[in-house]
Amino acid sequence: MSVWLLCALLFSLIGLTKQDGHPVPIKEVKVYAEETDTFNNGAWVLNVAWRDEFAENDEFKKISYDIEVLRTEEMKTVHNETIHVMPNKTTFYHWKWTSPIPLQCTSHSVRLRHRDQHYIGEWTPLYTYNGQDLNATTTTVFPYDQVFMVGSNITFCCIMETDSNVPLVPFLSPISNRTYITEEPVHFDRPSESTSDIRCGVKGNSSVFHTGASVFIGYPPDDQNLTCITRDLSSVECHWKRGRNTHLYVKRETNYKLNGRDCKFGQCVLHAMKPQVTNWTLIAKNPLGVKTLTDTADPTHRVWMRAPIKISHAAYAREVTLRWSWNEKNYTWFPMICQKTFSGTGLSSLVLVNLQPFAKYTARVRCGSYEHFYEWGNWSKITELSTKEDVPEAVDVWIQYFEQNTYVLWKPLTQQQSHGIITGYEITIGNPKGRSRKIDIGLNTQLCYKITFGNETSDQIITVSAKNSAGLSPPSTIIVPSNPDNEVSISHINSSNGGFEMSWEEYPYSTCGYVVEWFPTYNKKQCDVEWEKISECDSDACDTWNRSGQLGAVRYTVSVYACTNDAPKLLKRSQCYAIEQQPGKVQNLTVKSNGRNLELSWDEVPLDLQKGFIQGYNVTTLLSDSETVINTIVTKVNLKLDPGSYTFRVSAFTSGGEGEGDYTTFRMDVEKNFDQMIAATIVGCSAAALVFIIITVLCYRKWKWLKKLLYPDIPEPKLAGKWITKGIYCTQMTEGYMKCEIQEVHSLEHPATSESLHGLDLISSNSKVIPGHFYLNISESPVDVSYYPVEKLTSILENPSYNLTMPEPVDVAQMSDLTLEMQDAYLPAPNFVQNNLVVKDSESYKPQSACQIVPKYKFSLCLKTLKLWFTRIHIMYEFIQLIVHFPANKIFDFDSKIN
Question: Looking at the predicted structure, is the pLDDT value of residue 773 above 60?
């Protein structure tokens, strides 16, 4: 570095002269840092001042200078610029430069040279502003304890105590022997509530030492809406809003000046005020910037009055006079308005009218400018006041008929209606003849009085008045007839939203409206009645009266009276429930039986437990797992049931739901009804007969088809030779077997040989033996045998495979019980002669079907079919009877066994 300093000095000595040998005209160069409140914590602006003795012919022609800034130790140019100034031989030229790093981080040198159109001058010597890295005794970070705006990018430097120390991250870029800067500028994107710390770590022999710097991040002032007013007509108060929070506090907070005078936020007061248009300027300043606000107005047009003091009043029954005073002397001549109602010069009192007698009020006052109203002033303190008593309002009077007696009733007056403390009531009872008597009623008695007619037969005129310390209320009059007419039909009305609605037709003779009266239908008590008076029907008012509120789930009787010049006229009477709920339990459920017929009866739900209009009853019949529900509107029901043990439940229901049921159990045991069984048998047999007839008809109509399907015709066989006789021989065997043989005998022209007869086994080849059946079997080819007598033929045809003794020949009658099954195609028609079957001459022979051959067997087959059908019908009938009577019979048998 010493070499570089030597070169710089030589360069400075050479630059003292111009190229032409003229000296450099730039004189008295000064380099210094701009001083601020935080100058010692980090200086950023480098100032350069100089004088120029170079003479110019044209004093109005600008002079140009080249300026170059270098980091002295590295001799590295960090900034160069050409500036243009107007010539001035008497004063200093001035130029400033803002460094990207604090000037304390390292030394900075500046040099200048003159420039014009003809030549470029020599550089001046280097003028240096020394950094604190030359004589640092401790490790230090710059800048510190300074304020920066949100979004700033700050480059920090760390100056080492000695040349041998090397800092850690983030200080990685050296700019001198002892100074290192952050590799990249640190970005601050949000305000800091306190400080943001930057630490510089230095690695020593055995440990790491940390030093650092704190900075503050915030915003410049953002105050808005400056407004200046007057409150006492002698000074000005200015108010404004802060706007965005600067996040800077204590020494760095915003400072304010109003028209050059220091003030705090919300406490800027100018004691000198002129009744003319005035300008006010507010300057808000903090380390990051300055905000200027202005306002212009005549302060007398912006009067915000203070609150009145010392309020007093004078109270009467229906009005109060308020009085107050001010601490501000200037208010006595100032035109004002108070509460937008009362106005006047120097207003200090007002009268409150149309107040409620014997009532407590609170009052407070605020006023504003009358000529140039700007804003209402502050409220005064609250003042309590009370009005005096006045005569009460008229009471609401009505009558009640209860247990052949007549009562007059009236409603108590509310506090607003009483106009004071009610001390009692006065009742006057008179008649049209003019005679009357007065009765005083105290507060401790019921607001109800019994009217006695005595010997009077005319209507009574009743008046009722309430009294307090101010006097009697206007009288309320009602006429009570001696014989009230209550003959009117009673209807039912439905509940509506927890109440009931009433409608009626307008009465043409009504003079003062209508009265609707309601009371509990049951458990009615003396004087327990409510009423409401309605004015004349206006449009549809008579159709929309309703009552709701805290009404119980009991039945009410609602009546409508017309108010006339005479006694009230009853127009309509109805009963209703405000709220319909589930009814109570039915009473006295009983069962009467007559055979299979039952009669259930019960009593209605007690009137005080109905809780709604009974719409009907649910009768539930329970048997085993089955349940039957019958709905009825009467209290009696007839049932016809099968044998068994039944449980009955009866419950009432309203629109509010079904109530609790009353249970009873009844066991009914009934023997089988033989008439019913006979009827069921006849029905079953009739059904079976009908089915049989249908089948028979179908078989008859389709007989040819059935014949073709079951017994088709067999074509006539062609036989060689001349036949003389043919027959069938059958014998009874053991175990129910029948042995039958077909014997064919030729004429003498073709005698049968013994060999042919010897090889013929009719049982094995031409016949079958089956238990219980009779089979006829004819071989497909005729057997060539000779004629032998029947006796000999019997022995010849004996089956040697059966070691049986030949029984006697079976009679033809025995064959009728056998079932004939045709296995082959046809069989010649036989003539039955005792034990032998003699065949007619072959010339008169014709093939016939099996049914034509043995019609008796066909009849037997039909009989057996009918028998089978009747058996099936009988089984079906028994099965139906079993299903129908199974549960009852089983239950009956089970109960009998238990008992």
Answer: no
Q: Measured between alpha carbons, how far is residue 216 from residues 150, 191, 375, 421, 550 in Å?
A: 9, 8, 42, 73, 69
Structure confidence at residue 735 (pLDDT): 52
Regarding beta strands 448-451 and 436-441, do their DSSP bridges make them parallel or antiparallel, or are they unpaired?
unpaired
**Closest C-alpha to 357, from 382, 389, 313:** 389
Q: Which CATH number fits domain 490-577: 2.60.40.420, 2.60.40.10, 3.40.190.10, 3.40.1360.10?
A: 2.60.40.10
Query: Domain 587-668 adopts which CATH fold?
Result: Immunoglobulin-like (2.60.40)
Would you say the CATH fold of 587-668 matches that of 397-480? yes
Cα(895)–Cα(820) distance, rounded to whole angstroms?
56
Reference 785, options 830, 829, 750; nearest CA is 750
Q: Give yes or no for a contact between 33 and 43, defined as CB atoms under 8 angstroms apart.
A: yes
The domain covering 2-129 belongs, at the CATH homologous superfamily level, to Immunoglobulins (2.60.40.10)
For residues 60 and 613, which has the higher predicted lDDT (pLDDT)? 613
Architecture of domain 309-386: Sandwich (2.60)
**Token pair belonging to 493:** 């009305």
Measured in residues, the chain has a length of 899
Residue 785 has pLDDT above 70, yes or no: no
Q: What distance in Å separates the CA atoms of residue 668 and residue 592, rounded to the nearest whole number?
A: 11
What are residue 279's phi and psi, to 5 degrees?
-100, 135
With b for 16 or more beta-carbon neighbours within 10 A and e for fewer, the 516-546 pattern comes to: bbbbbbeeeeeeebebeebeebeeeebeebe
Q: Which residue has the higher pLDDT, 361 or 643?
A: 361
Sign of the C-alpha dihedral, residues 301, 307, 312, 317? positive
Give every CB contact of residue 783 below 8 A, 6+ residues apart in sequence. Answer: 744, 756, 760, 766
pLDDT score recorded for residue 506: 84
Phi, psi torsion values for 699, nearest 5 degrees: -65, -40
Confidence grade of residue 669 (pLDDT, cut at 50, 70, 90): low
Widest pairwise Cα distance in the chain: 190
How many CA atoms, within 13 angstroms, populate the side-chain half-sphere of residue 837? 22
Question: Is CATH 2.60.40.10 correct for 397-480?
Answer: yes
Structure tokens at 245: 């929070």
Question: What is the tally of helices (H) and strands (E) in the chain?
Answer: 8, 61
- How far is it, in rounded angstroms, from Cα 706 to Cα 704? 5
Looking at 2.60.40.10, 3.40.50.150, 3.30.450.40, 3.30.390.10, the CATH number of the domain 140-218 comes to: 2.60.40.10
Phi-psi region of 676 (alpha: psi -120 to 50; beta: other; left: phi over 0): alpha
Query: Helices (DSSP H) in 262-402: which residue ranges?
Result: none
Give residue 69's pLDDT band: very low, low, confident or very high (50, 70, 90): very high
Using only the alpha carbons of the chain, give its radius of gyration: 69
Split at pLDDT 50, 70, 90, the class of 873 is confident
Confidence of residue 206 (pLDDT cuts 50, 70, 90): low
Kindly list the distances between the CA atom of residue 4 and the CA atoms of 107, 132, 566, 589, 736, in Å, as whole numbers in the listed order.
14, 20, 132, 130, 155
Helix (H) or strand (E) holding 328: none
Percent of the chain predicted with pLDDT > 90:
23
Cα 888 vs. chain centroid, distance in angstroms?
A: 53
Average the pLDDT over 567-580 and give the result.
85
Give which of 387, 308, 307 is closest to 351, Cα–Cα: 387
Q: How far apart are CA 209 and CA 138, in angstroms?
A: 12
pLDDT at position 767, please? 38
pLDDT digits 0-9 by tens, 247-296: 998 888 999 999 999 998 888 999 888 889 999 999 999 999 999 999 99
Whether 197 shows a pLDDT value over 70: the answer reads: yes
- pLDDT tens digits, one per residue of 225-241: 999 999 999 999 999 99
- Architecture of the domain delimited by 224-301: Sandwich (2.60)
pLDDT tens, residue by residue, 413-435: 988 889 999 999 999 988 877 77
Q: Which residue has the tokens 């209320």?
A: 473
